[in-house]
Amino acid sequence: MIIQDIFIDGFGIYNNFPLTGLKPGLNIITGNNEAGKSTLQKFIRYTLFGYPRLTDERMPPLNGGSHGGKIRCRLASGEEVLFQRKPGNKNVEIELQFRGNLISDKDQWRHLLGNATKELFDNVYAFSLDELVALKSLTESGMEDKIFSVGLGLGNTSIGDLEQKLKDQANTIYSSGGRTHKMAQLIKEFQTKKAAVLEIQNDLPKYELLNNDLATLKNELEQTVHDRDEYQKQLGQLKIYISCHDSFIEAESYKLELVGLPAKQDYPEEAPGRMDKLVAIQESLNEKLNSLKEGNDHQKGLADLIQEHDEILVDNKLLKQETNLTGLVNNLAKYNQTLADTAEDNARIEALTASVNRELEQINTSWTMKEIREFGNTILLRGNLSALKESRDELMKKKTRLEAEESALISGQSQTNLRAIVNTLCLILIVLAGASLLYKIYIVAVVCLLIAAIIYFRKGRFRAFDNPVESIKQKLKEFREVEEPRWKTDYKYFLESVLRLQGDYSPDAVLNVFNAIDRAKREISDLDDLQKKQIEERNPFIAGFEEAVSSFKNHIDESELHEAIVEMVYHLKNKLEINKQNAERKQRLEEQCRVRVKEIEITYAKLGDTNDEIEALCQSLQAANVPEFRKKYFENREVKRLTDSLNLAVQSIERNAGRNKYQAVSDYFSEHDLAEINDKIANLELNIGGLDKKITEKHFTMGEKTTERNRIAGESTLTARLTELEMIKEKMNLEYKNWTVIRMALEILQEIKTKYEREKQPAVIRNSTRYFSRITDEKYNRILVSLSDNKVTVFDKWESPKKIDQLSRGTKEQLLISLRLGLIEQYESLAEPLPVIADEILVNFDPARLKQTATVLHEFSANRQILIFTCNPATKDYFDGMDINTIQLQ
Predict the structure, then answer these.
(1) Contacts for 194-201 with beta carbons within 8 Å, 24 or more apart?
(2) 705 pLDDT more than 70
(3) What pLDDT does residue 79 have?
(4) pTM of the full structure
């Protein structure tokens, strides 16, 4: 059994507390001190095996909640069961949830726990550090005796204590050579009382005479009572026969009715109901087949569905081109827009062409768009033109200045003597240099002298100014013959060769030509862009769209072929939608037909199976058909009813007359009639009345004599002595019986111990030895346990024995754990495995044995569940590398 989760409603410190995540195998539950580990262990014990008798020990809720809770477990069979205890009229009520049912059955509860007892669970499956610490040794604690007592089915009762108690009780009653036992005391007392009675009897002869008379009367009374009892017995027998008469008549009538009917057969009770159900299913299936084939008010038949399917026409070729047609529909708006844009651009092309032609007329009538496209960059040409224009303006300014100078000289305007001016200037500079030297401004003096020398030595260059008119004329001549023709030649070359313009154009006129060329270039560029877009984009798209529409002409009616492209696309779109709807409808009908055919096949198969079952049922009764089947069942039921009624009548007779007395009653009634029986009853009642009178008279006489004897006995205390003597004899008999019973119990117990040591103990000890050897790293390899003296001895690998008190505390605890594991393994071979609960059991182990113990516990948990409670979080580290489940209590 595996605990899966726990819910505590109210128990000790816990209130509304769930504990989930418990798993098969080894679970380590850690929590700080006072976290509730011990309370949780008690909850598991009390919930599964019952609360203590004392109220104070039941862990009532301290923090609210209803006292009790639930434990959900999975059994070895794989089934789940929920154990729940809650307050009730008897302190705590049990409730099971098992196989979908809510049960409050204690026997079922114990059965699901493998009939394990609370003592077994507390002594073997649940052990804590407190129990280990409290043990000075296994022998002194009697723990090994408890283990074997549980193995013998004695629960928490110690087999050693039980045997000793039986011996003590036997010795208290009788012991050889003893003087204080009960039997010796009773014998002594009996002898004393008997001597007193004999002494009294010697003095009372009349007492014996009365005793003889009473004995005679007693014998006569016993005979009379015997005779009356015989009559009463006969009377009772006759009255029993009378009480059975009606049932006998009924039984005979049922026998007569059974004559001629066939013998009762052991037909299955459920067969008629099964036949009725199968016939109903057969009729339902036939009706369903008819409905599937022919249809009904709610659905069409298969033939109608097929006809409807065949009448639907679908243009599959058009459906296959759905993607293309969808593309046409999606591009229809683009097509319309492209047509509109094409018309608009054509108008713009015409306008731009007219504008370019006007610009060409302004530039040169012989130019075409080709010359405009090939014309260079006007920006550079504008720069060249500007340079030529500036050059011409400079020439014109120079010409004007020279002509003005010539006119002035010719008009007699005085001319300045440049030589005198030069000499005067040189003199002034020399004077300034002398003054600078005087004032020690040497740099100024040097500069003045240097300038004066340059002017003086270069004064020959000023000789040309001696005749200024001739100089001006010479310059004008050079201008008119050289500079001005050269500029005109450059300008003409620029117009004809560079600009390819014929005629006389001024620079300003050329500038206007440049402006006209720039405008023409822009318009030609726009014109080229529009024409390119028409040629490369719009015209191919329009042609492709119209060609794509034309590819669908096979799907267009004759009357629709002459409509516009847009209308044709809309017609195709509508036809596609109609065909899609028809295709979907046709597909739905195909699916309905397939489903209908499948249903018909399934229904035929079910009908065939049903017919086979009906035929098999008929054959089981060797009936040819259903009516004959029902007739046989009807007859068999009638035979069964009559037989049961006959049996009830027989049972009624046997209840009154006695078991197996029916035949005797039947034989008696076959030989005697009712009137004769009633006469016998009357005679017996009369005889019994006479005997009762005699008995009364004898009782009266015996009463008188008994009174007289008691009077005599009372005077001599004989009666009291005799009574005391009889009581002592009864006590002796009783003590002897008790002593005999106790001795027999001791013999039986000895046989059980011997048998257990011979048959059961070896398996337990072998298992325990295996675990103890592994925990101690094979230091100890054998355990010997004897029930006769309750001794446990362990042997090391050299076969050296050690008693319990010779072992260390940790080794004792390891031995106790090993014995428990061995007993659990042996016990669970025939019972439901229970969870093993261990609390702080590893604290006294050295690291090596602790690791070995952890390995043993982990392997032991492979086929069961172990819950280890601890306050040390490091406990899980002992199981490093092993598959364990850890839970932290908050």
Answers:
(1) 194/725, 196/721, 197/718, 197/721, 197/722, 197/725, 200/716, 200/717, 200/718, 200/721, 201/718
(2) yes
(3) 93
(4) 0.39
